[in-house]
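A brief tutorial aside. Many learners find it easier to grasp structure tokens once they have seen a single protein encoded end to end. The record that follows does exactly this for Integrase. Read the sequence first, then the structure, and try to relate runs of similar tokens to stretches of the chain.
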Amino acid sequence: MLFETAAREYMDDKARRLRACTLAGYESALALHVLPRWGGVELESIAPEDVQAWVDGFELPGAAEKAYKTLRQVVRWAIRRLGVRMYDPTAAGVELPRKAARRPRTMEAGQVRSYLRALWGHECEAVAICSVTLGLRRGEACGLKWSDIDLRTGEVRVRRSRQVVHGHEVVEAPKTERSARSCWLPRFAVRRLRALRRGRSGWLCELSPDAVARRIRSACRRAGAAWTSMTECRHTWATLAVEAGVGIETVAMMLGHTDIGTAYEHYIVPRPRICKDAQREVERLLLNG
């Protein structure tokens, strides 16, 4: 069986199972990197050393990783679902190029205050408040409706995600089972959202997620205020929570992660204050214990 045949059947199958944005990622990786190299190759003839040479030829480590994982997905699916009898060439320990360490651009507490002041009265303010005070994914924040927020208790029910896929807006279920969750707003955010609602219904902001992100950035730039992307507002909340003494297990729960390790590995920025506070506690134990 040719790889391109397996890939086509794989995508047909996954179109019924995957979220639209996830499917778009696989489509992109196949079209740009995987099919040009492997499309006309028989699955059974793909050798580990050929896969390694292909991976080594990428200039961007991130592109190499995405392309390799897509290749691996199709191969393993073909073995499992189509009954292709072959050795899995991706099981031989292919080494991916090392990606440069990336530190999220998070905001300090004072910068978050500046960010929110810049958006006071802005059409995207309600989305920005929920994004930066709850650590929501961009699609989750843009997917909130006023009916999802209990302005008496501060509970926010995350039930959907609004995404832009191939230029079109789609509404889909949250990323994982744990992503469908309830979060609770801080009191100042509840008070401000009460003032903003004033009988409104529907989406917190009618603009598309891409437009929301652009307008928030423009408003902060005009005001000379701190700004970071909505994705990194999520990192900001997680880091501020740990800095305030919140346990990592609670942070992971609020973020909707399936395990604590994801929050620790990808979302917590090791700020000096966090480390110094930890050392003060250890010092107190050592000297006074």
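Self-check: The mean pLDDT is 92. If you spotted this yourself, you are ready for the next section.
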